[in-house]
Amino acid sequence: MLPDEELTRRLAMLLGRQLNPLSLDWEDASNWCWKSDGVAPELIKLARTDVTSPFWRGIRQLFGFDRWAHAETLPMVAGMLPPDLPLMPMPMTFLARLQHSPIWSLPWRQAEQASWTGQFAERLGHQVGLLHRETANWFGHPLSGRHELAAWPDRVCNFLRQSDARAMHELADEPVALPDRAVWCLPDLRADQYLESATDGFWSDWEALVVAPIEFDWALLELLLDDETLRQRFCRAYRCHGAVPRISRQRLHYRAVLWCLEVLGPMSWPVMRDQPDWLDHRVAQ
Predict the structure, then answer these.
(1) What does the alpha-carbon distance between residue 196 and residue 182 come to, in Å, rounded to a whole number?
(2) Helices marked H in the chain — which ranges?
(3) Full set of structural domains in the chain with CATH
(4) Per its UniProt entry, which superkingdom is the organism in (predicted)?
């Protein structure tokens, strides 16, 4: 899926750059992307979805963050992350807006999109372990507001009640476990948000980062790590930096939230609900 020629022409005229459109791998991709020509090419991103999409609407409702409203300051987040990540966030620069849609640039890297290999799972385990090593006593986003963890259960229940699905309303009537720590979390985590070369790795898409309870991030990881080899290598690397938490008390509510966000794409709630719950067994080992 490519941006249309007229959009490319208008953006090139606005930025004063020659642009080559890049195909999107996902229909729900948050940005249109181009590669600029020149001695120092850039990756140009134009925001494609806003708070009308299930994902970004949910991020605003749960965490109070709207990337359109904070487009100019969003690049600051990269500097707030640990300096020793194996997959360092690529620096991002705010350029302008095209009909209110934010435009950012990142340096172009000669690297391939990562895929779910054992090597990548291990690298990501170190990455997430280092991110989780720095904990917070609040949730939200540093650019839009910090909220006491005591408010999290009500925030989750209120979010689920806004769904049209009866099952979400029933879950919202059940108590949500109170978290005691929060960490950096990327709710739309996918392997292709990272780039790998023969010697280096890069984090090219981190703009949805929020601060969330650690169990929330692990509820997502439990869904993504769908192969035993990936689980072993990820968890072994993660344990170099901290203990793997149990999520049995939080799993159902957090899977419901992730289902409403459509982080795995549209699917039925029973399919999401009944994904393997392997994590607690892994903690017990």
Answers:
(1) 28
(2) 5-15, 54-63, 118-133, 152-161, 166-172, 214-224, 228-238, 251-261, 269-273, 279-284
(3) 5-107 (3.30.200), 112-284 (3.90.1200)
(4) Bacteria
Full DSSP string of 224-283: H--SHHHHHHHHHHHTTTSPPPP-TTTHHHHHHHHHHHTTT-S--HHHHHTS---HHHHH
Q: What is the DSSP letter of 72?
A: T
Q: Give the tokens for residue 183.
A: 């960490």
- In terms of Cα–Cα distance, which of 280, 284, 285, 227 is closest to 252? 280
What are 78's two structure tokens?
């990269």
CB contact at 8 A, 149 and 180: yes
pTM assigned to the model: 0.94
14, 96 contact by CB (below 8 A): yes
DSSP letter assigned to residue 201? E
- pLDDT tens for the chain, 285 residues: list them: 888 899 999 999 999 999 999 998 777 789 999 999 988 999 999 999 888 899 999 999 999 999 999 999 999 999 999 999 999 999 999 999 999 999 999 999 988 899 999 999 999 999 999 999 999 999 999 999 999 999 999 999 999 999 999 999 999 999 999 999 999 999 999 999 999 987 889 999 999 999 999 999 999 999 999 999 999 999 999 999 999 999 999 999 999 999 999 999 899 999 999 999 999 877 655
Phi-psi category of residue 100: left, alpha or beta, with phi > 0 → left and psi -120 to 50 → alpha? left
Query: 140 is written with which tokens?
Result: 């939200």
